[in-house]
């Protein structure tokens, strides 16, 4: 699935870049045709895969009002669980912080690259295709990660991700953007895969879904908050770069605090 997604992510912007001379109105028609075809392919799925169980659906409706309480209880449980694993907790916090920054950058990437950096629509489309190639190439790192120290792999990935943020914020042209994308692919792949492996190794199987759900809930909420804040502040600054710079400074400070606390602890064993 990851390979298919990377290939699709490559082909989409690549085709937009090639056929942009047709005009964006015709490209939307082309997009509509592709979506229609994908919908038709759903008809080929086995009935058992798409059959709806009415009994289960009714039970699901009765649980909706209880979900928020279930999430709160899950967050409390995961907090107690991870407090006993300070190193893993710190890595999860670092990863979550990095993902919040990454999505915040991505939300206004088009405006930043085309309006402030000056990339053409074709250059932006091809840069996304190249990013997909980078991700596709780094997806094979999973085999290497399993043979190396996971903590040091996470550290190397974090350094790469930080370089992505640094270069991206201070980019001045097309080639610096591509360089930042190169570090983005390496960094995000390494920290994601190594953290997943660490959770699978150090957290009991029946608790792993709870950890994942809690992390996704918190990251999603923070991402929404940051994006809304950027939209509000943009009305005053009228510059995405300044807002990116502010986010990068906050990211650097929080990252320094988290890593400093890790280094200052003598009871942690890195294996």
Question: Nutshell version of this structure?
Answer:
This protein has 271 residues and is an all-alpha fold.
The multimeric state of the shown protein is: single chain
Q: Helix/strand-derived class?
A: mainly alpha
Give a count of the beta strands, DSSP E runs of length 2 or more. Answer: 0
Largest sheet: none
- Number of contiguous helices: 13
Query: Helix share of residues?
Result: over 70%
- Note the gap between the termini: 31 Å
Q: So what's the overall shape?
A: globular
Sheet-strand content, in percent, reads under 5%
What string, H for helix and E for strand, traces the elements in order? HHHHHHHHHHHHH
Report low-confidence residues grouped into runs of 5 or more. 49-58
Q: Radius of gyration, rounded?
A: 21 Å
Overall pLDDT level: 77
